[in-house]
Amino acid sequence: MKSILDLSLKVKFPLWGALLIVVTALLVTISLVIQSYSNLKQELDNTTESLSNAVVHSLFTRMLHDDVWGAFELIDSTITKSTSTTVLFPEEVLVVTNQKKIFISSNPAKAPLLTDISELENSYERISDFIPDTYDKNQVRKAIYTDNYFYSISPVHSDGVILGSLVFIYSKQHLYAEFEGVLVSAGIICAVILAILLPISWFWGKKTATPLVELTNSIVSLSNGRLNEKAPTEYAHNDELGKLLQAYLVLIETLREKQSLEENMIRSERLAAVGRLSAGMAHEINNPLGGIMLALNNFRKREEHSPQTLKTLSLIERGLDQIHDTVNAILVDVKIETRFFSGSDMEDIKLLLSSEIKKRQIDLVLHTDSIEEIRLPATQIRQILMNLLMNAIQATDVGGIVVCKLLAHESTLTIVTENEGSHIPPSTLQHLFEPFVSNKPHGHGIGLWVIYQIVTKLGGTIDVDTSHAKTIFIISIPFRDES
Amino acid sequence: MALKKTLPIGKTNLILRTLLIITLAFPLVMYAGISHAANPIRFGLTPTIPYEQYQLLEDWRLYLEEKLGKPVEFIWRENYLETMEMLRQEQLDYAWICDYPFVYFKDQIKLLSVPTYNGRPYYKSYLIVPSAEPNITSINDLEGKIFAYTDPYSNTGHLRPRYLISELGKNPATFFKKSFFTYSHSKSIKAVAKGIAQGGAVSSHVWDSALINHPEIANATRIIAVSPEYAFPPVVSRKSVDPKEFESLQNALLNMASEIEGRKILKRLNIDGFITGEPQLYAAVEKMMKALNDI
């Protein structure tokens, strides 16, 4: 079972944020509600205290004089009169004698005069228990909470003499009703705050997590050996995440360069090795071959031979010629030449390619800067161009386009050929410039080998790009010096 | 200095003395003149009328001031005894009191005027109980219950119910479980309406007025007995009052019924008007008082 801590940051961040907000909001709301309730109770207590103090002294006099109506008017003034049930005034008031009989009440129907309070148990819960038989010296007001009522009981006293008790009765229903209002308000405010903050926090959580997640994915795939082509999300800020991203991009770039360099080096080494091997072999073959061909020639000229013998001799000579041609083809020697490549060479090339172009209905597009003279050996450049363009033309589908650009820039000649058509498969690409590796059903497969040798010997570089839908060869060769 | 030089000494003395006398006498003369001119009529009001109608009584006071051309003060007191004492001590000149104190203190006061109610200078005592107590139908049923009196010196609110009890052969002092004084007919009606007392006795004038002005209170009570009629609570004066003033106030009261403004006030007071009246009207209440040994 997946632990909750293993969830994606995209979920974790917003979740934690949401959790924090909810907990905070709830805690604040609850503490405010508790505080509010406590305040309400305190206010109730204070109001009762004030009312009591205001009334008790006059009440004493009236009780003393048995002034029933006067006492009634007094307590009647403390009762809540307004229609809105404000909780701070008592619902009912009782004035009880020391004999625990009702002296006067605000509701004579419920608490008739002269009744013993023990008979009022149904109307007032346990009230006879709450009213003390005697008061202590401090004569302090008592506050009692039952299930449904709040009682405030004060002695009616003056000069240390007590005539009875003043009982204020508050209905808890009203207290709760008032408090319910507070609770509902608090709840609504809390809900509103959450409704605003939660989506914001979720959004920000995700926004923070997403670039992290993407970067993580890129690095993970990097550790698996894949260099992702595209960089992870754009992240504009310069905090730790931004710096991490920058570092990652630099790392990727470095790794790519390194990989490319390694590949190039490996290829160059391989090609150089092949070159050395083939050169070595060619020389070893050429030496005895020359001798053999000379001996044969001498043999033919020396005496009369039968037709059969002559046929055999010719066969042997043709075979040896073929060996000679092949060996010489591999040995690509760059002879020092004085003639440089010029516009007329380009014309020749066009002519030589024309039949193949026509046959495959290729559109050959040439971009050549005003080529006056390119300070490079004409023969070699011709060979390069011929091989490249022939390959391109043959690789393109019928009716396709082949583009060739010649750019003379500062001290470098750049040749670029582009063609659509059959791709070079990756397996071939690895060994592309090696001899006898061919894409085509016919052909020796040494065209690119020859180009590679020439370009390398001229001090240049050759690259192939098959990333787009085309095959692009890019050759750069530095110009010869004036001398 | 100049005086000494310009006038001869003997004459100066004389002039100075005259000036001194005038200076001293002046304020006295002024005081006498002013106080004589602005001597207010001090009129005592008691709960014999439904006197919580303060606005009405203020309007009446202004009316009287206008008619008499001198300031009129209404002085409110809670009980009859205090009012009578104030008259005796000449702190009041006139007062509207109940019929009982009129008889009780008749040697000390003069009858100024008697109001008429329903066309006659008479009113009655109602014995009332809470409407929520349908089982109490007579004074008998109130034995051992709680009763509300108005004022110890009230006829309709104290004397009459005691008389009824004594007619039953019972002792008024012990007939009820508990009794108390409200010192006002209006308050007695409220006490009975709220059930503080199971019975009360009030002036028919006040109860009838309550039915008009505060029907919800009056209808919370029920009349179970109506007394014979007694002379209406009179307006009296102390014996030593100025006769001219006595007459002018009397006339003002008597003429109220023939004046538009006067009639408006009378209507609000719920009486028809004022007549001169005579002490003989109060014979019935005097008889009751003697029967109960109050006098």
* Regions with little confidence, pLDDT below 50 for 5+ residues of chain B: none
Largest sheet of chain A: 5 strands, antiparallel
- The H/E string of chain A reads HHEEHEEEHHHEHEEHEEHHEE
Shape, per Cα inertia axes of chain B? elongated
Uncertain segments of chain A: none
**Could you tell me the strand content of chain B as a percent range?**
15-25%
Q: Which class do the helix and strand fractions of chain A yield? A: alpha+beta
User: How many β-strand stretches of chain B?
Assistant: 13
Instruction: Kindly name the structural category of chain B.
Output: alpha/beta
Number of strands of chain A: 12
How helix-rich are the residues of chain B, as a percent range?
40-55%
Radius of gyration based on Cα positions of chain A = 54 Å
Strand order of the largest sheet of chain A: 2-1-5-4-3
**Strand portion of chain A, in percent?**
15-25%
Report the span from N to C terminus of chain B: 76 Å
Any idea what the shape of chain A is?
rod-shaped
Report how far apart the termini of chain A are. 78 Å
Sequence-ordered SSE layout with sheet pairings:
The complex is a heterodimer of chains A (483) and B (295).
Chain A: H1 9-64, H2 68-76, E1 92-97, E2 102-105, H3 127-130, E3 142-145, E4 149-158, E5 161-171, H4 172-223, H5 240-302, H6 307-330, E6 340-342, H7 343-360, E7 363-368, E8 373-377, H8 378-395, E9 401-409, E10 412-419, H9 426-430, H10 447-457, E11 461-465, E12 471-478
Parallel strand pairs in A: 7-9
Antiparallel strand pairs in A: 1-2, 1-5, 3-4, 4-5, 6-8, 9-10, 10-12, 11-12
Chain B: H1 2-6, H2 9-37, E1 41-45, H3 54-68, E2 72-76, H4 80-88, E3 94-96, H5 99-104, E4 109-116, E5 122-123, E6 125-130, E7 146-149, H6 155-167, H7 172-175, E8 178-181, H8 185-194, E9 199-203, H9 204-213, H10 215-218, E10 221-226, E11 230-231, E12 235-238, H11 243-254, H12 260-269, E13 273-275, H13 283-291
Parallel strand pairs in B: 1-2, 1-3, 7-8, 7-9
Antiparallel strand pairs in B: 3-12, 4-12, 4-13, 5-11, 6-9, 6-10
Helix pairs in contact in B: 3-12, 6-13
